[in-house]
Amino acid sequence: MVVAAGVGSLVGLLGVPRVVTAVGSRDRVFNVAEFREQPNHPRVALVLGAQVHPDGRPSRYLRGRLDTAHQLYKSGFVDVLLVSGDNGVDHYDEPTAMKRYLVEAGVPESDVVIDYAGFDTYDSCVRARRVFGVEQLVVVSQGYHLPRAVTTCRLVGVDAVGVGDWSVQRVGRFDGVPVLWRLGWTNFALRELPANVKMLWDVGTRRTPTLGAPESGVADALER
Q1: If you placed Cys at 24, which of 87, 143, 151, 220 could pair as Cys (CB 3.0 to 4.6 Å)?
Q2: Helical H runs in the chain?
Q3: How far apart are CA 78 and CA 66, in angstroms?
Q4: pLDDT tens-digit profile of 201-222?
Q5: Closest Cα partner for 66 from 86, 53, 55, 50?
Q6: Which run of H or E residues covers position 177?
Q7: According to the model, what pLDDT value does residue 25 have?
């Protein structure tokens, strides 16, 4: 009886947030080809950060996100890329590495806006709305992450859709380290279960991330 109750509680704890993200992101998650067929496209893409190597190179996961964002920009689907990542310590700077990668790929520097305090998905979504004034956007991340990312943005007042990267599912080497097929992807996908719980907690408690003064970078880029 006790074991059954415990299992039931665990299923509820993990299952309910998963249902929330499924409903919140329904018909809002696309790959680039599918996104091309949508009638309306937000002008801003929010590119969520991921690991950067000590030498400043984006990890394979982050490169997948940046390459997807670059495709959206190059195809004319978005006009501004808001890169949001972790810059909490002096020796680690995701958003600067993200901007450098995009500029080197041909995106004008003026169309890449940096958010230095996107410490997690919730922070990035809240800051997009409250600091950068974005009300509608495309979230760019790996496919497994998008249901939570899109739902989070919508729950904090941003009308969001998602365009995902699935390239890192392919068989191959992970930044020079041999890996089993989809092993890394599966591990990260499983992490979405507790992450969904955290999302509901953050939204429900209205946790306030690092904010600061409003920034006009996105608006200025859109006006150019």
Answers
A1: 151
A2: 2-24, 32-36, 60-74, 94-104, 121-130, 146-155, 183-205, 217-223
A3: 13
A4: 999 999 999 999 999 999 999 9
A5: 50
A6: strand 177-178
A7: 94
Do 218 and 113 meet the contact criterion of CB atoms below 8 Å apart?
yes
Name the DSSP class of 109.
G
Distance between alpha carbon 58 and the CA centroid of its chain, in Å? 15
- Report yes or no: 73 and 154 within 8 Å, Cβ to Cβ: no
Please provide the average confidence, as pLDDT, over all residues in the chain.
87
Instruction: Give me the residue label for tokens 């998650």.
Output: 29
CA distance 166 to 187: 14
Range among 21-25, 88-92, 132-136, 185-189 with highest mean pLDDT value: 132-136
If DSSP states are collapsed to H, E and C, what string results for 66-91?
A: HHHHHHHHHCCCCCEEEEECECCECC
The answer for 203, left when phi > 0, alpha when psi is -120 to 50, beta otherwise, is alpha
Across 60-77, average pLDDT: 96
Contact indicator for 146, 29 with CB cutoff of 8 Å: yes
At 193 the pLDDT is 86
Closest CA to 49 of 132, 114, 131, 134: 114
d(CA 12, CA 129): 31
